[in-house]
Design a protein that fits this description.
With 148 residues, the chain is of the alpha+beta class. The chain is built from three helices and seven strands.
Length: 148
């Protein structure tokens, strides 16, 4: 099953600072919601075990998060591959930072889900994905604004 998601978030920090935090694996690792274990492998890779709950299905997924192409302070890409409980997830995402009195982060993600989770149906998965992405960006935004 394939899903496409997009949205935007306003962050009360300068664009360069937002970019630096969004491309810092230590910062990302410390602000992941629902993480049970997190290991920063190197400056571009994080391994984690995340608790995932979709409708009545609850599972742990092992994921690898990799930073991709970046152009400071304009945009960056992030790739996630994960598996657990008979399911696999691949996410290719991109963020773009726009300058103003605050920083506007526009983001998009293409998600591919296979296995047991794909059988839950597109309506349930789309709702879950929208909620989870919002939680992730809210968590990261709060951490960024707290860090300054």
């Amino acid at each position: 099953m394939q899903l496409s998601l997009e949205g935007s978030k306003t962050i009360n920090l300068p664009r360069e600072r937002v970019f630096d935090l969004l491309t810092d694996t230590n910062f990302i690792a410390s602000s992941l919601p629902d993480a049970e274990e997190v290991n920063v492998v190197d400056k571009e890779t994080i391994d984690a075990r995340l608790k995932v709950r979709i409708a009545l299905v609850s599972a742990s997924m092992k994921v690898r998060i990799k930073l991709g192409e970046r152009e400071r302070p304009n945009f960056g890409t992030l790739y996630v591959e994960g598996s657990g409980s008979g399911s696999n997830v691949k996410i290719a995402s991109r963020f773009e930072l726009l300058n103003g009195s605050t920083t506007t982060m526009k983001w998009s993600a293409n998600v591919e889900i296979t296995g047991v989770m794909a059988g839950l149906g597109s309506t349930i998965l789309k709702s879950f994905a929208d909620k989870k992405v919002t939680e992730i960006f809210d968590s990261i935004t709060k951490a960024m604004e707290k860090t300054g």
